[in-house]
Amino acid sequence: MTPSLSLPAVPPPVSPDSCPLCGDRRAAHFHRDARRDYYRCPRCTLVHVPAAQRLAPAAERAVYDQHENSPEDPGYRRFLGRLFVPLKARLAPGAEGLDFGAGPGPTLSLMFAEAGHPMAIYDPFYAPYPEALERRYDFITATEVVEHLFAPGEELARLASRLSPGGWLGLMTKRVTSKEAFAGWHYILDPTHVCFFGEATFHWLATRLGMTVEFPAADVVLLQKPHREA
């Protein structure tokens, strides 16, 4: 399902919205396809879709309802293993976590529970448990989630605040590499993908949150909170 939009003949040179990650208002036009415009922030380098060109909640939910992810699917488990393996290697025995954006078929939480790391789950559509966002955790995961966020700056700061000292935030999302690659990128074809992060974006985010950052795979990011809070 795609949004019903009538794009202007010439896109504005600067985004009509402030950057949803850092709030900068100078994001320049980066790319246009048949459905949407994309703007890139000069401060944090996030590429985003303007608010007026995003799906409405009901249409967004309809796309997610088509997902058929299941913990019984070994291929899906292998996919999640790209985050599971490097993050698990960094956790203390018995560390407890939260899977943010768990989706209609929570699987990563089961994988960690099987390895001795119990996890709570939260998803605004499928597991809307606000109490899960009030606790502290040793680690938080968000797999194929950040590209869907309308307010990633606010949401990621909230997740970081829920981490205990020394805690880990593990993210999976494909990264922007160049303007040329972006134009032919399959990742922008999903109408629910509205924010696109590059490696420089995650370095900016780590500095903003006071965390360190690692890139164990092309689509995996691990951010760690200091062991002592300032």
Automatic annotation (TrEMBL):
Q: Which InterPro entries match?
A: SAM-dependent_MTases_sf
Q: Which domain of life is it from?
A: Bacteria
Gene Ontology process terms (BP)? methylation
Transferase recorded as keyword: yes
Q: Which UniProt keywords apply?
A: Methyltransferase, Transferase
A GO molecular function annotation here is: methyltransferase activity
Please give the name of this protein. Answer: Methyltransferase
Tell me which species this is from: Bisbaumannia pacifica
